[in-house]
Each structure stands twice: as C-alpha cells, then as structure tokens.
Design brief:
By secondary structure, the protein is mainly alpha-helical. It has two domains: about 80 residues, Winged helix-like DNA-binding domain superfamily/Winged helix DNA-binding domain (Arc Repressor Mutant, subunit A); about 140 residues, Four Helix Bundle (Hemerythrin (Met), subunit A). Helix content is about 70%, strand content about 5%. Helix 6 packs antiparallel against helix 12.
Length: about 240
C-alpha cells in the first residue's frame, strides 16, 4: 500500500485502549487484503502521527501484531516492518483456535446482505463511468484468478471494497472492510476449490451488470444471491 493508501485508511484514534484499537485496525486491513504479504509499514513515528498517538503506544500496537505472527521486523538491507509473506497461512492458524460456527456464518451473511446489499444498490445509483470501468476491470481480473486462491481472495475483496467506495458512504466502506476481514478468516479455514469459485453465483457478472444498468433493486438482489451462495459453500463444514 502506498503513502496515499495509508492516509486513506488510517484516522486518529480517540478512545481508551488506543494500542489495542490500533492493532485491531491494522489487523482488519490485513484481513481485508488492503495490506498483503510483503507490504512494508511506514516508520513507527509516521504511523503514530497518522493515528494521533505517542510512539510508545504505536510500538505496543505493533507488538500485538508481531506476537500474533502477522508482521515481522527485518534488519540490514531493506530494514523495516513488513506483513509476513505467508500471512494467509498464519491467519488460518489463528482462526483455527476459534473456528466459525453455523450461527457465525448465518449472522455474517445477514450482515453482508444488509451492508453490502445497500452498498451495491447505492453504487447502481451513483457510480461514475470511471468507477464502472474500474469495476469491470476488477470483475475480469477476479474471474481470471479462480485457480489461485490467494490472488482470488485479494481481488474478490478489492471488488467488493470498490463497490462500497462507489456507494459514496464512508460508513459502508468501513463496514465492508470489516466484512472482508471476516471473509478472509473464514476462507482461510475453508478455502474451497476452483469449481466453487467458478460457479455463476460466486462470480459477479449479474451484480456488475445490475450496477452498470443503474438498477438498484436488481443490484441488491444479485448481491443477496451471491452472499447466500457463499454461505452455502461453508455451512456443510461447520457445526
């Protein structure tokens, strides 16, 4: 993520337990695939300024991520703090400690339909030509990546985050980031296969077409079909 991206996704923390709140936020950015394996963090001083906290508070937050095995600090050439290269494998290990249940998946699906369904409807009403062009690019790239689970997860998250951005709502965008974080954890535990990722309901053609045609009701319906199909893939594997 470049400097502009850091500024876009980080805001000052104004709550007690700032270190824990920062750790959760960075954890979410990793889970939402906004930060991916190999991404380098800005220096602690710069991060502390972005979050509006003392450097020591920032250091404590980074220590939490380091203890969870999500980041590493390198010395010598290209010294700095990075997201670990195999971060999805580490997320899988952490998720296995507290596996998802059927109730968890049903609740997440209901939340997705409420948040992402509304974002899809708003995107259908508000998307610009440039925004639609980018949406088509993401759809094509996602379809091409079905054979690579990690690349597909990154692109799939990016597509849904872009739809949330097209909605024009900051709150929907923030909620979508949390949803994509949870989906990454769920998919790390139950990644599925090429066949599952290739089914029509898992692809995004109907959703993208509805947004392109400015059909808000159809966009919401297509997203609901998509979210329920995703849940159906996982429910047989959980209790």
């Amino acid at each position: 993520m470049d400097d502009k991206g850091w500024a876009q996704h980080i805001a000052p923390v104004r709550s007690a337990g700032a270190a824990e709140a920062i750790a959760r936020r960075l954890n979410e950015l990793i889970g939402a695939r906004i930060l991916v394996g190999g991404d380098r963090f800005p220096p602690e001083k710069a991060l502390a300024e972005m979050f509006g906290v003392a450097v020591m508070t920032m250091r404590h937050a980074m220590a939490v991520l380091r203890e969870d095995g999500l980041i590493e600090t390198r010395r010598g050439h290209r010294a700095g703090t990075y997201v670990v290269p195999e971060v999805l494998a580490r997320i899988r290990e952490l998720t296995a400690l507290h596996p998802y249940t059927q109730a968890d998946i049903e609740e997440l699906t209901a939340w997705r339909i409420a948040v992402s369904g509304e974002a899809s409807a708003r995107a259908a009403r508000r998307a610009s030509e440039a925004g639609l062009a980018r949406l088509r690019e993401l759809e094509a790239a996602t379809d091409e990546a079905v054979a690579d689970a990690e690349a597909y997860r990154t692109l799939d998250a990016g597509l849904h985050l872009h739809i949330a951005e097209l909605s024009g709502s900051r709150r929907l965008m923030e909620a979508e980031q949390g949803i994509q974080d949870e989906l990454t954890r769920l998919l790390a535990e139950h990644p599925g296969g090429v066949e599952a990722r290739s089914t029509p309901d898992q692809q995004h053609r109907g959703l993208v077409a509805a947004i392109e045609h400015s059909d808000a009701a159809q966009a919401r319906e297509q997203f609901t079909i998509h979210a329920e199909a995703t849940a159906d893939l996982f429910l047989p594997f959980v209790q």
